Amino acid sequence: MSFLRHCGVLKITAVSSASALWPAGPWHRATVHPFARVCLSCSPSLPYRAFSESQGLRDSLAAEMENGTPKAEKILTLESMNQNVRKLEYAVRGPIVTRAMELEKELQQGVKKPFTEVIRANIGDAHAMGQKPLTFLRQVTALCLYPEMLNDNKFPEDSKQKARRILQACSGQSSGAYSASQGIEVIRQDVAKFIERRDGGIPSNPDNIYLTTGASDGIVTIIKLLIAGQGKSRTGIMIPIPQYPLYSAAIAELDAVQVNYYLDEENFWALNIKELRQSLHEARKHCNPKVLCIINPGNPTGQVQSRKCIEDVIRFAAEENLFLMADEVYQDNVYAKDCAFHSFKKVLFEMGPKYSSTVELASFHSVSKGFMGECGFRGGYMEVINMDPVVKQQLTKLVSVRLCSPVPGQAMMGVIVNPPQPGDPSYNQFNSEKLAVLNNLAEKAQMTEKIFGQSPGIYCNPVQGAMYSFPRIEIPPKAVQEAKAQGLTPDMLFCIKLLEETGICVVPGSGFGQREGTYHFRMTILPPTEKLKTLLQKLTQFHEKFVKEYS
Amino acid sequence: MSFLRHCGVLKITAVSSASALWPAGPWHRATVHPFARVCLSCSPSLPYRAFSESQGLRDSLAAEMENGTPKAEKILTLESMNQNVRKLEYAVRGPIVTRAMELEKELQQGVKKPFTEVIRANIGDAHAMGQKPLTFLRQVTALCLYPEMLNDNKFPEDSKQKARRILQACSGQSSGAYSASQGIEVIRQDVAKFIERRDGGIPSNPDNIYLTTGASDGIVTIIKLLIAGQGKSRTGIMIPIPQYPLYSAAIAELDAVQVNYYLDEENFWALNIKELRQSLHEARKHCNPKVLCIINPGNPTGQVQSRKCIEDVIRFAAEENLFLMADEVYQDNVYAKDCAFHSFKKVLFEMGPKYSSTVELASFHSVSKGFMGECGFRGGYMEVINMDPVVKQQLTKLVSVRLCSPVPGQAMMGVIVNPPQPGDPSYNQFNSEKLAVLNNLAEKAQMTEKIFGQSPGIYCNPVQGAMYSFPRIEIPPKAVQEAKAQGLTPDMLFCIKLLEETGICVVPGSGFGQREGTYHFRMTILPPTEKLKTLLQKLTQFHEKFVKEYS
Questions:
Q1: Which GO terms of the molecular function aspect are on file (chains A, B) (predicted)?
Q2: Is the N or C terminus of chain A more exposed, i.e. has fewer CB atoms within 10 Å?
Q3: Is residue B174 a contact partner of residue B188, using CB atoms and an 8 Å limit?
Q4: CB contact, 8 Å: B37 with chain A?
Q5: A175 has a chain B CB within 8 A of its CB
C-alpha cells in the first residue's frame, strides 16, 4: 500500500479522533499519541519528528480506507515532486500551528481540554489579536473600492482627497484595473517622498521603488534575481541566526546556499562583524556568497541595530562585494529608550559617495507591521539602490509576469506613506490611534521583559523593537533525551507540551535557528495587555513545572 | 566601459530624446532610430531584436555619463544574475507596451504624434477600458474594509449580510488579519458550493480549494510543485501554441521543459488529440513530460472546447499519465451560440470512477475576467482533484511561506461565487449589470469577427469566448526581409509600426507562439464599442497600407 512507501520503516496504526475509519485487524489501538495520531508502540519517534508527513500519512491512509483499495501510483508524489519544496520549512505556520487550529475546532465541538481558549502567539498578526485598524487607513481604502461614497459626508475631506488622488492614477479610475507592474506611479512617488522625510532629505527616486505583495514578495523576488551557479559557484546568501524563516524557505526553494551568521545573544542579539567575517570565509570554501541579509529591527530577536553597527555592516559589504538586503518592516516598532531606527539607505548615503554610489542595496517595508498591522492587504514596497539599470529592467520584467501587486494593498501603502498632516481634518484622530498602538506595544514589550526576567530558567533579552520575544529556556537533560527518543528537537517537545496543556501556541526556536545546545521559542507580544500578562504567567509556570518534571 | 560588455559587438551611440546627455566625440548622431534609440549606422539590427537590453544599455550608459566615470563592476549584473529569469519573456507587458507608455507620456507633454490617444488593446484589463465595476461586488468588499458602514442605510441588506459573514470568518473580524494560508474557510466553502452548482451537483470539497493571488499565482504554484529531475528526466510541461505567456515564462523561470502542442487554426483553433500524441512522443525523447496544460476558453485564441474534445483530452491524460492543469478563467466568457463552457472537473466526473478517481487535475479561476474584470484585486482560486494528500500538505506548506493571498481579493472571490439570489434586494441590479457586460462583450466579439472577416490579408477565427482576437495577418516578403535585417520577428515589425503610426497597442503573435511562417497579433475586444470599431477600422486600413508599402 502506498502509505508504506511514505512511512519507511514504520507501521502506521490508529487515529484517535476518527477511529471509525480504521479497521481493527492488525492495527494497534493501545498507545495512540494524541498529537501525532500514530501508534507509539510501533513508532515512538515519528510523531513529532515529521508531523507533517505523518499527518499526510493519516490522510493518505484514510483515503485508501474510504475507497477500499489502494490507489494506483500518482503522477505527483512525495518522491516525484519538487524536492526543494519538500525540504523547505516555515515554522511560523508549521505543524504546531496546524495542531493549534485542530485544538480550536475540538474546543468548539465541546471536547474537554485543560484550557478554554487557544492563544496564538505564533505570528505577528496584530488584528487577529484584537488590535483595531486605524480609521483613516480604512476610510481611504474603502473609498478606493467604492467611490460612490466620495459624496458621503460621513467621510472626512482629507480621506476623500487621498482616495481621489489614488483613483485618478488607476487606469479607468478603477482599483479593479491592473496597475503598472512596478506599482501605481503616484504611490511610488509618495513612497519616495516618505523615504526622503524618514531619511532626513536623502533623495529617493520613484523609479527605484517597487510596490510588492507584502515584503515577503519583494524579498523572494530579489533572492530569485540573485541565484545562479552550480556546485561551488552556487549563490550563497548570508542570513542571521536566529532568522525569520521566510529566508531559509526561499533559499531552500530556490536551491541557493544558506550561509548562517550568528547574532550575539549575550550582547542583546547584536550583529558582530567578526562573526560575519568568519562565516563568510568559511562559506567561500564551498559556495559563492554574494548576498548579506539583515533584519532590523530583528525578527525573531527584537534587537535594534546601532548606527555604528550598520556602518560596519555597510563597510563590510563594500569590502567583501556583497549585495545588501535590508528587511526593515519593523521600522516603526522601536520601544527601547536608548534605541532608534536607522535605515540602511540613510546610513549608506551619509557614509559618502565611496559607499553611496557603489553598494548595492534592496530594502523592504510592509503594511503588515508597525502601528497598522494590515497583514491581510498584502502590501509593501522595496527600494533598490545602485542596481545595474539592465538588471533593474530584468526585475521589472520578472514582476510583470504576475502583472501587479494587489491594488487595495498598494492603496493601503499609499495612505501609510502619505498620512494626514497637522491641520488636516483627520490628523488628530490618526495620530492618537497610531500612538495608542505604539505605546501599548512598548508597554507590552516591557512587561514581557519583566516577567521573563523574574523567571528562573528563562533568559530573555529586552524587546528593543519588532513584535516578538525570543527567550532562551532551560531544558533539563532528561527532557532532551525524551525529545531525542521521539526524534524531536527539545524546544519542539516543550512547545508541544505547552500547547497541549495550556493552549498557548508559540514557535520552537529551532524553526528560526539557534546555537547548538541552546533552546528558545518565539512568541509575539501582540495579545491584549491583560491576556498577555496571563499568558506570560501561565507560560513561566508551565516551564517551571516542565523543568521539575524532567529533573 | 561596462556597457560594452552588455552590447557585445555593437557600438551604442546616441539617444534621441535625451541627446543632451551624450558627448559628441566618437558617437554617431546621424541615424538614430526613434524607437530603440541606438545608432542604426552602427547597429541596424539591435533595436527591436533586443529592445529590452538596448533600453537597459541606454540607461546604463546614461548612468555612466552622469557620473563622469565608468562604474565599478556590480555584484548583480546581466551575466551574474539568474539566467532563467533573464531568458523568460512576457509579451503582454513586453517592450511594445513599455513604448506605448512612453508615447502616452510624450502625448501628455505635447509632443506631436499622428494620433491623439494610445489605445492599449494589449491586455485583458476591462476596467482600464472603461468597464464599470459591478455595484454589489464593490459594496460588499468596501464593507469588509470599513465595517463602520454596516450601519449605513445606503447599503442594501444583502451586501451587509455577505460582508458580515466574511468578517466573522476573519481572525479578529478584520480583513487586516492574515487568513489561513489556504484561504478563509467560509469562502472556500462558498467556492465549493459554486463549483457544485456550476457542475450540476458533482461534489466539491472545500479542503481541495486554495484561494490564490489571481489565477497566475495558482498556476505557477502547481507548476512549481511539479518540476523535478535533470537532463532527460526534467519535467516537461505541455502547453498549447498559441499560449498565454505566463506559461512559457513560468517554465523558463523554473527551468522546466516547454513542450508545445499546436492548436488547429484551420479548425477554429481546436485541440487535436493526434497533435497532442505526436508532441508527447517527440518530447519523451528528451524530457519527462508529465503535465498537460489546457486553456479553455482559449487565450489568446478565443476558442471554446467541445465536450467531446475535453473527454478526449482526459482519456489521453489518463492513458499517458499526465497531470492536468485546466485554466478556466474565461468560463463566463462564452459568446458563440453553438458553444458552451464545460469544466474539466465536470466532464472528468461524468466519465465515471475509472477517470474521476485517478486523473490528477488542478483547475483555476480568477476574479479578473468574466463579467467582473476585477484584475486589481488579484483574487482567484484553484481546485485540486485526486492530489496525493501528502503532496497536498506540501502544497499547503509551500503557500504558507507567503502567509496568505490578499484578503480583499479573497472577499471579492467570495462575493462572486455567492452572488445575490432571486428575491434578494440586490438581485435585479446585480443581474442586469452582469448581463450588460456579457452582452456587450458578445456584441464586440461579433463586430471584431465581422470587420476582420471583410479585410483582405487578415484571417480571423470567430471569437467564441474569452476576450481576445488573434488574427493571422499577411506580411509581404519584403517586410519579412526588413524585419530580418533588423533582427526582429515580422509581426513585431508590424506591431511597432502600427503603434508608432496609429497609437494602437497590440501584442505580436510571436509572444504567444505560432506556426513558423505565420504571423498574428493578439488584441482585446475590451475597448468601448465605438472605440473598438474605430480601432478595428484603423487597424485594417493600416494593414492594407503596410502590405502595399512592402509590395
A1: L-alanine:2-oxoglutarate aminotransferase activity; pyridoxal phosphate binding
A2: C
A3: no
A4: no
A5: yes
